[in-house]
Amino acid sequence: MLTRVRKLGPGLLFAGAAIGVSHLVQSTRAGADFGWGLLWALLLVNLFKYPFFQFGPRYALATRESLLDGYYKLGKIYLWIYFFLNIATMFTIQTAVTIVTAGLASNLFDIDTNIVYWSIGVTAICYAILLIGRYKLLDKFIKAIVMVLTISSVMAVIIALSKGNDSLEFTQVFPEGAGLLFLIAFMGWMPAPMDISIWHSIWVLEKKNELKNNLSLEEGLFDFNVGYITTVVLGICFVVLGALVMFGSGLEFSNKGNEFAGQLIQLYTSNLGEAWYGIIAIAALTTMISTTITTLDASPRAMSKTVQLLFHQKNKDFYILWITILGIGTCMIFLFLLSEMGLLVQIATVLSFITAPFYAILNYRLIISDHMPIKHRPTKKIKILSLLGIIFLTSFTGVYLLSL
Predict the structure, then answer these.
(1) Which of 110, 272, 332, 336 has the smallest number of Cβ neighbours within 10 A?
(2) Alpha-carbon span 201 to 197, nearest angstrom
(3) 192 vs 63, 198, 216, 270, 347, CA distance in Å?
């Protein structure tokens, strides 16, 4: 067990990438707007997405290739689709998580500086950390972040539970109208967009190289399960916090990252007490720092690998090029498109949801194909859960498209 714990890494990076906007913003809003009413959605989407995320480390450790290599073997067209989908969302996702991080940092340090400058500063710091330390530093950094995040979030929930909220009922609801769009966005990024399975497969290979190939499939899946369970537990924590502290408050959240951050911390502290400001602020800030730095690392890794495969440049590393493109593109959005952030985030979250069946089917096809060693293929139970997950994700996508 101690050996497995020492080899934790990619699973916690998965958690760090996942526990961001989907948890701090979407889960908190789910609790604030619907009380306990959307717990069913959180639990079901985490259950049905589980096998497709697990296929990332499973395929990587069984074949020593990333999911992108597998997509290429299934057909070059799938890699081109991924390339254009990632181009369409990577800048918006990075901008969304960075601006919330910047807003929280501004509130925590009580420095009233233009949010654009804060956001550019956060991007520059994360960029520098990744260029200096690459995977090794990210691996160490994220372990500390996830630990602080988990402890502070659980403490906040315990405090909120001790105060209670008599107006809450456990009745589950299915939103309609504008609420349906929120539900789609909530499930689209819960626990994370499906393409994070690709990032995870790349991180696993980095970890395996760091350990000089001393990472087994069982150890890799243990690591994944630790990260995945952490995302589910903390997702529930943020829904509970939103429900206990915010439900029925009448507060209308701002769509602007800095204003939302201030509202979030202020509402928590006004209900839980100013003495708990530090815990709430640290929980929120570490949540978003973990997401900001892991997403800034992951998309460039994935795009570098995609370009290598599409243009037969396997001996060239395009990581620095893509992290620079992502960093500059993100800063350009801060400077020129900040007023459109609400629309951009909505587009990104909806794209994440309606493309989920695509990634689910592709991952499932790959994991049961001849490219996967028979002895490492998933069990019958996981295969059944995968098929149910494909039905679930496809059905909800259909419901959303028909409602337009």
Answers:
(1) 110
(2) 6
(3) 24, 12, 25, 30, 15
What CATH number does the domain located at 2-403 have? 1.20.1740.10
Give the percent of the chain with pLDDT over 70: 85
Spatial distance between the Cα atoms of 314 and 106, rounded to a whole number of angstroms: 42
CA distance from start to end of the chain: 50
The segment with the largest mean pLDDT, out of 26-35, 82-91, 344-353, is 82-91
Q: What angle do CA 375, 378, 380 make, to 5 degrees?
A: 110
Question: Quick one: pLDDT at residue 38?
Answer: 92
User: What is the C-alpha separation between 28 and 243, in angstroms, rounded?
Assistant: 8
Q: For residues 366 and 74, is the Cβ–Cβ distance under 8 A?
A: yes
User: Is pTM, for the whole model, over 0.90?
Assistant: no
Give the confidence band of 112 by pLDDT, cuts at 50, 70, 90: low
Q: 79's torsion region: left (phi>0), alpha (psi -120 to 50) or beta?
A: alpha
41: CB partners within 8 A, 6+ apart: 30, 183, 186, 187, 190
CA-closest candidate to residue 78, choices 252, 297, 309, 292: 309
Angle, helices 196-210/39-63, rounded to nearest 10 degrees? 40
Q: Which of 364, 362, 355 is nearest to 393 (CA)?
A: 355
Least Cα distance to 386 among 1, 41, 54 occurs for 54
The CA distance from 320 to 338, in Å, is 26
C-alpha distances (whole Å) from 326 to each of 90, 134, 312, 332 are: 8, 16, 22, 10
The span from the CA of 90 to the CA of 391, in Å, is: 27
pLDDT of 163 higher than 60:
yes
Core vs surface per residue 67-99: b (16+ CB within 10 A) or e? bbbbbbbeeeebbebbbebbeebbbbbbbbbbb
Higher pLDDT, residue 218 or 399? 218
The packing angle between helices 380-403 and 39-63, to 10°, is: 130
331: its two tokens: 């800063």
Cβ burial of 330 (10 Å; 0-12, 13-18, 19+) is buried
